[in-house]
Each structure stands twice: as structure tokens, then as C-alpha cells.
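S2.1 Query sequence (Prostaglandin F2 receptor inhibitor)
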Amino acid sequence: MKMDKWLLTLVFGLLTLGGCSARVVTVSPGPLIRVEGQPVSIRCDVRDYSGPREQDFEWMTSREAGGTRTKIISTFDASYSSPSISKRVASGDISVVRLKDNEVELKIAEVKSQDAGLYWCQTPSTDSVISGNYEAQVQLIVIPNTLSVSPQTPPQEVPEGSEITLSCNVTRALTHPTYLSVSWSLKNGATTEEILTFGPQGDVVTGAKFARRYADGGIRLVPGRNGVFELVISRVTTSDGGTYECNGTEWTHENGGKWIKIVENAKEMGTVKVIPTGQSLSVKASSSSSPSSTSQLLSPGDTLTLLCSVTADNLQALALEVTWLAGDRDIVTMERSGVVISNTSSSGAQGKRGEASLERTGAGEYRLGVKGVSAEDGGEYTCRVRAFIDKGGRSEGGGRRWHMASEKKSSPVTVKVSQIKPSYTVKLEPILNPQMTAEPTELACHVTNITHLPLGGRLGVTWEHTTLPGIGDDPQTSHRIGSLDGDGNLLPGSMYSDRLKSGAMSLTRVQPNTFKLRILRTKEIDMGQYVCTVSAWSVSSQGDMVETTEYNSSQTTVRWDTKRPTLNVVAKRIREASVGGATFEMSCTVTTENLGEAGYSVLIQSQESLESNVRTIMTLSPDNVLQHGGATDPNRRDSLVLTKSGPAEFRFRLAGVQLSDRGYYWCDITAWTKQQPGQAWTKATSAESNKVRIGFQENGPSFSIAIQSDDTSVYPSKTAKMECSLSVSGSSPKTDDLAYEVRWFFTRLRGGQTTTQVASVDRFGIVKAEIRNSSSEISIERIDTHTYLMNIFGTQDGDSGEYYCVATPWYLSASTGAWTQAGELTSSRIFLTVQFAVWDSLQLPLLYGAAASLGVGLFSLVLGLVCAQCCCRNTTHTPRSRNKLMDLEMD
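Output C-alpha cells follow.
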């Protein structure tokens, strides 16, 4: 009875064998190539097992296939190791580390050549049924350490801006397929930064700090022969100083697709010190007539010549910016590109100082020249030099990238100009004082009590104006109106240049000692305080006129009571648009106060509702130039008219109104004035009119849209069809009075959520297919008046995704006889799937697998029955000595 029960249990276990998981033991993919003396780790894991969660492992090795296995180490038996291995296990040279319940790692601290061979990882069974594999093997190859790294010592000191070559020889004896990489690093203090790594696949990886310099060519890799690699760092800066190290690494590429570092060797190349440019940069200023002198005495009108000498250890690698300063003011600069910028004429003091020039006479030699010096040119002159180093590459603006290495100034050179300055008195008085806007203004500047004016000397004048508080954009700021120099030349100020050139303002010398300022039509901005500055000019030794001194007059105020102009605009409906297609017309009438003759600019604006955005329909300039705004449909511009119907009246007409034209319309009018004919318009004031509404109702048809497909799942290379159906209700127009614009859109299943248009057909029947990245083709056909069919021929996997259509109906309005555009309609979305024929490809393999499984199962059943009758006589169960393992009989 017990035997029958046991047989039934065994049969049931065999029948359920196909539903149990098979134990799988795996180790690191091999063969494993490692270097003698280096650490080695081999991982082993088991899965799809039954029994306790924590599994035990046993490691064995053999020198060759079929040889005697030597026991190495076990996770549960401390005496498992063979005598030849036990000492290394006891010393910790060989150990096993449990990583997880089902994963361990065999570790060899320093692998030896005799450790090469086959390694087995075995797991004793804890399964109720023997199934799968219980051990796995991997081959370990141990090669000698032949990696050699021989760096060449770089120079100990290099000047900033020069070049460093780091040469390193990395070799190894090629006995097995291993690969090399070489890397350079820089240690500066406690910080070590990777510069560049080459290999093991021939790729280049740069450190974060050096990536841009490598891309710009500031760092170059030069592979040589016989394992020689050179790293060239050009345009070095002080941050490149430090200790350089060369690292050679030997790699192996295992079957699992991973790169494994098996040995590396790092050698220190040497310490490099980058000498800053500032240590060797020297700047000296001297007089050209006496290089050792630090002062120079000149007479008015003479030419000042000074030399600036620049020296540096790395002068050829520097780009210099040289500036001469008079006191603390820059007078002339030669940029590093060689362009000379003079500041003597742009500082507002033209005529007070001589014109400066700067030229390069040799390597590091720069000469300053100032012609026609005057007393204003006296003082201390200093040469300032800024040294730049080209960092390579381009900046975001497209120019070269520069690093300012140093800046130095020379000792000052004192320049003295001897002169007795003229003396005189300046008085400013008004001749014509305006009482209102547009009246003339005239001011006279008188010079009296003139003494010490040299023979041939002349007087010049400069007029300045300061606006009153609250008038103008920049009150209380003085602006130069213009000046007359010693030769009588008119030099207008930037703000008044146009008015002086047109004659609206004039500066004249009516007598040798009297100057006048006249404004023909005075503006409100002209109110304020006026000052005249009279300068004395003398003839220099070169025959040029140079300024020697100047005196200011007291301030004179020009002011009158002003009244602001006002503008009022009234919009009135002339023609009402009660139905679609009718004509809408309105007029805008302008009334003004405190404004004389003026021109008007008109903006016709609209908005759908009082809260919506404002659109500009048309504009009319003061010169009657008509333009259409951005909100105007180009096809309807002939229906829009804006005219000037009177001196202060404008009319706007919109023919053939549509539903989209409904909303509010008004005029935005600006008044402009001119000081005199030919001048530019000046804005006076502006105002908006009241709003006139177009609010007709059009009871047109209503439309709806739907999309459908008979089959949303197709196989590759098949044709997918999708129908876009439209329906119309309400006052349905005739077939000939109805047209649609239809567009198809697609959102890809993979590759993002971007929606693209794939095809379209306009209301005239013209089909347009967009360019796509798929090999499938798309066609559009109109099945009937309201139905459009899209065909996708030769579908591919990339055609999977969401599709929908967008339609814009057009109908011929019965009331107006004009084509009217209805609102845009968007359909729902359908999802098209291009399937892969998985079942067809798996039918035959599944059939073979099922037949094989059935045959093996029947054979196992018969074999189990025979064994039970013949072999298994003793039913007494003897448990194994270890509580973690199942009975051997059950195994």
C-alpha cells in the first residue's frame, strides 16, 4: 500500500515537471584574460530554483578540460578547500563574498600564472525535482605583466602663451588580444584633473575643464610610432602649471561586451611652472628727443612726440593693446588688431587739445604724436599696455577668444606748454524773446575787455542749452547746440544738426566780437537756459589754429506760457451692414484746440469683443500713404477703402462683410506738425474715437466631422484606408455651392509626440502630400460631396500612430452671393497599428517544441515506473546531515 502511494506521488511529480522552473547557474562570460599579480573576481549566480532563498556555492578549478578538479572554497563548508589551496584561503588571498542570497563572487587578491585554467561554480540541489544545470564553468587566462610606461620629462619652466609637449611611451607584449589606452592628468595642489584619454577603441575623451580647448585646437593629440604618444598644449596660461602624470592602461574586451581594465601603470612626468607674463612685461615711456628724460617743454603749436617701449619674454606670443593717457584720460588707443582709436575729437573738447596719432615703429615700439599742442595738452603722459593671449576658437559673437594675461603702466612723462592766456569778458543778452510757440528767438553774445590776444588770434563760440524741468525726455541736462571754431567753421551738435543744416536754427558771427543764435520757429523743447562760451584761438608754428583759453557767459532763460494741443475724434456709422455681403462704412471727424496747421495719421483698428486683442486693419500716414495691417486678409484688400474725405474727416469702407468681420471698429488718429516745409513730421498729440459695431447675424448651415477606418490594425506592406466624413445641417446649400479644405495630421507612436501634417486637399481639389521619412505612399480621393478617403500604401512600422483630419467648409451665401468661410472642424483621433506577423513565424517552432516535450514526458514516465519497481525497495527515509539540503534519494 505504501509502495502504491509512493508510485502515485512520483507519477504526479513527473507529470507536473513541465510546469516547474529549471535551475540556472551562470558565471561571468569568458574567457577571462587577467594580468599576473592583479586582483581577479568571478561572479556566480543561480536563479529559477526552489528551496530556501539563501543558496550555497562551491568553487572548483582544473588546469585543463577533463583534468582533475581541485576544490577551492565553499560558502557552507569551511573544510572544503583542497590542501594545495587551503593556505591561500586561510590567508585571504582567495575568498568568496556573498553579494545576494543567490549571488556570490570568487576573489583572488593577486592572481598567479598557475591560477590559469577552468573554474566551476556549483550549487548543491535544494529543488524538489532535478531540473536545469547545477554548475557553470569559465576559463581564466593569466598573462604576464608586460605593460611599460616611459614618459619624457617636460621643461621645468615655460613662459605664458607658449607651448608644452608631453611625450609618453606606452607598450606591452601582445600575447593575447588586449588593448591599450593612454591618459594625461594635471595635479595642482590637492586637485588632480584629467586632461585627455586616448583608447582603448581609438576614441578620445577629454576632461570637463579641457573639453573646449581640445575642440578649439588648443590641445592636440599626436600619436607616434612604437607606442609613443604626444599631447601638445598650446597657449598655456598660469592655470596649466603643476605636476603632469602619464597613465597607461591595458584592457580586455569580454564576450559580454564590456571593457575590463586588467592592469594600469601611472608615471609622473615632471613639474612645469608657467611664468606669468606680468613678471617679464616691462613698459617704459620717454621723450623721442631725449629717451632718458622724464619731462618735455613745448611752445604752443609745437608737435609732441613720445615713445612707449614694451618688452617681455614671450613678446611674440602676445597681442598688445597700447593706450596713451593724459592724466587719467585716454587720448589714443591702438587695439590688438592694429586699429587706432583717437579720443581727442570725440570727447566734446575738440579744438582744446591737439590731434593725437599712434603708430607702431617696431617690435614693442609705439610712438605717440600730438600736433599743434596748446596749454590744454600739458600734464603727465602715461603709456598703458594690456597683453592678451589667444585662447583659440571663436566666441559666441564670432570673434576670437582672448585672455588678458597682464596690464602695466609706464612711469609718467611730464609735458609743459608755456603760454600767456588771453583775457576778456562775455555777456549774453536776448534780442527777440518769444511769447508763444513758433515765434522766433534771437540771442546775442558780446565779447568785451579783450587783452593778450596774440597777433592773428581769433575768437570762437560754443552755444549750450539746458531744458526746463518737465520739458523733454532728459531735463536738466546740457546739450551742445553747435560751435564756430577759430576758422569760422560751423560744428553742429548731434541733437541740433538737422535744424542747423536746414536753416531752422543759425549760428553767426555778426562782428569780430559779437555772435548770434537765431531760432526761426521756437518749439516748447527750446525753452530753458542758454549759455555761450567764447574761446580764444591762436596760430601754431605749423600754421594751424589752436585753442588757448575760453570764458563762459551767465545764463539767460527763454520761457513763455504754453497751452497743450488737444484732439477729439468722433466715429459715425454711414452705412450699416445688416447681412453678410453688405457694405459697412464709417467716418471719423477730427476737432482740435491749440493746434495750428497739422497733418493726420489714421489707424483703423478692430476687436471681436471688448476683451479680445486689438487688430490693425489699415493705416494712412500724414503724407496720405496707405498701408494694410497684419490682420488684413491679402485676398480681401480690394474690399477695404480708407480715404481722406475732408480737411479733418476720414472714411473707412468694408465691402462684402463676413461673419469673421463682426466686432468693434474705431479710428486712432495722431496729429503731426512741421517746423517748416521739407522737414520731418513731429508728433503733437493723438486720440481714439468711439467704437462702432458690426453685429449682423448670418443663419448659415452648420457642419460636423467624423473619421473612421474599417481596419485599424494592418500588417506591413498592406494598405490602410481612413475616411473623413462631413455632414451639413440647417440651411444646407446646393452641392455646387459647397466645398471643403481637408488636412490630415499624424502623431507618431514612437519618437516623440510631435504632430505633423501628412496630406491636404484644398477647396479647389488640389492635393498636396507632405515629404515624409517613411517609404509608404499616401493618396487622397474624394468619394462624394462630403466624404474624403486617405490611402496609405505599403504601410511600415513608422506609420503606427494617431491620425485625425481637420476641415474648413466654404459655402455660397444665398443672401450675399459670396463665398463664406465656416469655422474650422477637427475630428476625433483613430489609432493605426502596423503589426508584426508573430503567429505565422512561430507556428512551426511551437509545433516541434510541443511534440518534443510530449515525447520526453512519456519516456520519463515509463523510466520512472521501471526504476520504482526494480530499484527502490527500501522506503525508510534517512535525512541528510545538513538541514539546508534535501534527501539524496529525493535528488
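Confidence is low (pLDDT under 50) at residues 1-20, 346-351, 874-891. Residues 566-694 form a domain with the Immunoglobulin-like fold (CATH 2.60.40.10).
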